[in-house]
Write a structure and sequence with these properties.
This protein is mainly α. Helices cover 83% and strands 0% of the residues. It has helices at residues 2-33, 49-56, 58-90, 94-109, 112-125, 132-157, 160-168, 173-202, 205-210, 218-228, 232-277.
């Protein structure tokens, strides 16, 4: 009993230390975003002036808009292209599918700096002007494997007999796809889209090598600010992003819990009916 209590206490202490390492820096950043003083080592009182300054800063707002636009468009394009590629790969024979999967996974497994330099050299060799479009193409390139890896397992798990049965009953191929195939692979498509959006939002290295002059995302903007000294407005922006992601996670988890609860209700009813019969 004593040993179990000690191990339980040590486990709680270990979790506490892990959470301190994970969320201590984020908590510090949040506190600094409300600091009246511009200096990190001095507390000047509670203030919202850095948030007001953030929304009045055209440079930061432009970088935020560019980041969100590139992330959304690249995730959408990668989702469409990756889903189509997953369908094609699912119909291939084993050997060509394995070869193509290996080639597809290279951008995901490769170092970001290698991918970034390679894409930059490709654009320069084609005399392609670096800018918004080059960053967008680069993000679509490294997002494709995440979509393929999310959709392909769903296609393999799908029951092909249901689709064939729908065709035998008179449904067109388009109607059968929308009513039979699409609902089965929709979770994989959404997962691929969210992964692509997150990876694009977070990317710095590849964007740095392919962005050219006159365009900045949040990551490259913050990197430029670090060399000159981080502005407190960046603390405010980071706090807002953290709160938005945190709220979204709570909503997604609550929705998943509700679905799980609905799924267990029929099982509970069946168990009760079985007990009553006994």
């Amino acid at each position: 009993m004593v040993g179990k209590k000690i191990s339980g206490v040590l486990g709680k202490v270990y979790l506490f230390v892990i959470f301190i390492f994970l969320y201590g820096p984020i908590a510090t950043l949040i506190v600094l975003s409300f600091n009246e003083s511009k200096f990190r080592g001095k507390w000047g009182g509670f203030s919202l002036k850095w948030y007001e300054s953030l929304f009045s800063s055209r440079e930061i707002m432009d970088a935020l808009w560019t980041t969100l636009l590139i992330a959304f468009v690249s995730a959408l394009a990668a989702t469409l292209l990756g889903t189509a590629a997953a369908f094609a790969m699912n119909r291939m024979k084993r050997l060509p599918r394995v070869v193509l999967m290996t080639v597809t996974n290279i951008p995901m497994l490769n170092a970001d700096i290698v991918t970034g330099i390679s894409l930059m050299l490709l654009f320069l060799a084609l005399n392609y002007r670096l800018g918004f479009s080059s960053v967008l193409i680069a993000h679509i390139t490294f997002n494709l494997p995440y979509v393929v890896l999310s959709v392909l397992p769903k296609l393999k798990q799908m029951n092909k007999s249901v689709y064939e049965a729908a065709l035998d009953l008179g449904a067109s191929r388009q109607y059968a796809f929308v009513k039979v195939i699409f609902p089965d692979i929709l979770p994989g498509i959404l997962t691929g889209f969210l992964l692509s959006f997150t990876m694009s939002l977070d990317d710095f290295v590849i964007t740095h090598f392919t962005k050219g002059v006159g365009i900045d995302t949040l990551s490259t903007k913050i990197y430029a600010e670090v060399r000159k000294g981080i502005k407190p407005e960046i603390y405010a922006l980071s706090t807002i992003l953290f709160v938005v992601v945190f709220v979204m996670l709570i909503l997604v988890n609550r929705r998943a819990d509700r679905k799980a609860g609905r799924g267990t209700q029929p099982l509970q009813l069946e168990e009760r009916e079985a007990d009553e019969r006994k």
